[in-house]
Amino acid sequence: MGETAGRSLRADAERSVRAILEAAERVLAEEPGASMEQIAAAAGVARTTIHRRFANRQALIEALASSAARQLARAVEDGRPDTAPPLVAMHRITANVLQVKSAWAFALELPADPDSEAAALHQDIARRCIAVLKRAQDDKLIDGAADLDWVRRVYYALLGESLRGNADDADPDTLATRIIDTLLHGAGPRA
Amino acid sequence: MGETAGRSLRADAERSVRAILEAAERVLAEEPGASMEQIAAAAGVARTTIHRRFANRQALIEALASSAARQLARAVEDGRPDTAPPLVAMHRITANVLQVKSAWAFALELPADPDSEAAALHQDIARRCIAVLKRAQDDKLIDGAADLDWVRRVYYALLGESLRGNADDADPDTLATRIIDTLLHGAGPRA
DNA sequence: CTTAACTGCATCATCGCTGTTGCGGTTCAT
DNA sequence: ATGAACCGCAACAGCGATGATGCAGTTAAG
């Protein structure tokens, strides 16, 4: 479970942990093989401080993945996936997720160990995602014969593609609109 | 230019180079930070042999990227992108590219140095890709108001997504059909 | 205020990877 | 068949990253 279970840290220690995780995301996104030294520098912290909080590089990575996955789960939850109308939920969730994903791109694309907290969260998110798609299918927004798992994968791919290169030059809602539109209608001529 | 310009190698040396490049793809795909030792072992070659052919790890990576990019360009070319009917060309190119991309996934997703051979090839491929899409647009297969650069990016994303996980369990034509269908019509209900 | 937690700094040992060189044996080209 | 190219093996030096430790100074919590 990484750091989740440790008893509550002192206020400054908590700040350090956050700074380290944020710095790790920033640095590793640009250079996945970056050293602890570089991460420490970016966090405004001594390298030994990182080793005090995270035993291994591995442990740091896992904590990073867990933290990001929790934020992603929250972003989905905030979109009211199983109460709001499907189209509204999809739009809100997409906009929320885009923001989280642009801030934690590296951590979220990390190959998760099958029995880690992050993996469990991602699995739960995928479950909710398919549930929303199912509701959209019931509302005839998605073809009845469509393979929802493929649709979900396409949706994920569109999310990822929207964030490549110039990350946050457009606002999330504009990007979300384009994603949903592409997902539902593709590139073909409109009716 | 990497290794392209060196005078012709002896037959066994050429075999070694191919074995090394193929092993590098295989090993690095699973573990991007793998050591030269691991690559050498996978290639059935001594580590020093790699250093004889490629000065740096960097040089090896670049040669790998160039080699893969050349194969990809050839796969596109074989689809007759500017003579065959757009839909036919798209299908053929997609099927061809899927095969190359499944064999050289790591090398092709490598961030290319702006002034490398690989980058030039990828740029040329993107140019051809957009040309095909333009012809499809002229044939009313794609909406007249569509942003072709976005369409191309979506197409790339669909290609990538099709190969994740169980790589080659389905034949390329089936996958290609689904990709083109999704690209043109999305997940919405069919007419 | 007093104590315990936390941090920075300097240091140390260790490890694995890299890249090079030399040599003896093997394989290809002509 | 002969020479040049190639390969494996062993050894070496160098480098940077890792992770641990002790100590002195600072900060938060009760």
TrEMBL record, chains A, B:
Keyword Lipid biosynthesis in annotation: no
PROSITE patterns given in the database record: HTH_TETR_2
The HTH tetR-type domain, residue ranges: 14-72
Keyword 4Fe-4S: no
Annotated DNA-binding residue span(s): 35-54
Alphabetized Gene3D superfamilies for the sequence: Tetracycline Repressor, domain 2
Domain of life: Bacteria
InterPro entries noted in UniProt: Homeodomain-like_sf (IPR009057), HTH-type_TetR-like_transc_reg (IPR050109), HTH_TetR (IPR001647)
GO MF term (any one): transcription cis-regulatory region binding
Protein name listed in UniProt: AcrR family transcriptional regulator
Organism: Streptomyces griseomycini
